[in-house]
Amino acid sequence: QVQLVESGGGTVQPGGSLRLSCAASGFTLDNYSIGWFRQAPGKEREGVSCISSSDARTYYANSMKGRFTISKDNAKNTVYLQIDSLKPEDTAVYYCATCELPNPWDFGSWGQGTQVTVSS
Predict the structure, then answer these.
(1) What does the pLDDT look like over 38-89, one tens digit per residue?
(2) Which contiguous run of DSSP H or E holds residue 99?
(3) How far apart are CA 7 and CA 112, in angstroms?
(4) Which residues of 92-106 are buried (b: 16+ CB within 10 A; e: fewer)?
(5) Is the peptide bond preceding residue 104 cis, with omega within 30 degrees of 0?
(6) d(Cα 76, Cα 61) in Å, to the nearest integer?
(7) Strand, helix or coil at 88?
(8) What is the Cα–Cα distance from 56 to 24, expressed in whole angstroms?
(9) In 1-56, where does DSSP find H-type helix?
(10) Beta sheet of 3-7, edge-to-edge order
């Protein structure tokens, strides 16, 4: 059974950084590509990034390039999303999910999400 648990969200000031974690269980990262999407109140879901299972190739939405970095630690079965230079518009619930390559924005199972709030 695929299970994903996000953590690491919180409230930060503009310009700050956060590292979100996604702990996977029931499968290994060798077999599933994992990504992140976010959803802000009243807005549609927005794909952020995906990292492939086989070669750790990374994919970013155009608007996310530069401030977001996805990585994974296969030994810990955990995927990370580093977010730098946070802006108020980054405020959203961030979810990790399986991403169904070759379409990195085709998300499958996801976790409960972690809230990121950027506010002064």
Answers:
(1) 999 999 999 999 999 999 999 999 988 899 999 999 999 999 999 999 999 9
(2) strand 92-99
(3) 10
(4) bbbbbbbbebeebbe
(5) no
(6) 26
(7) helix
(8) 16
(9) none
(10) 3-7, 18-25, 78-83, 68-73
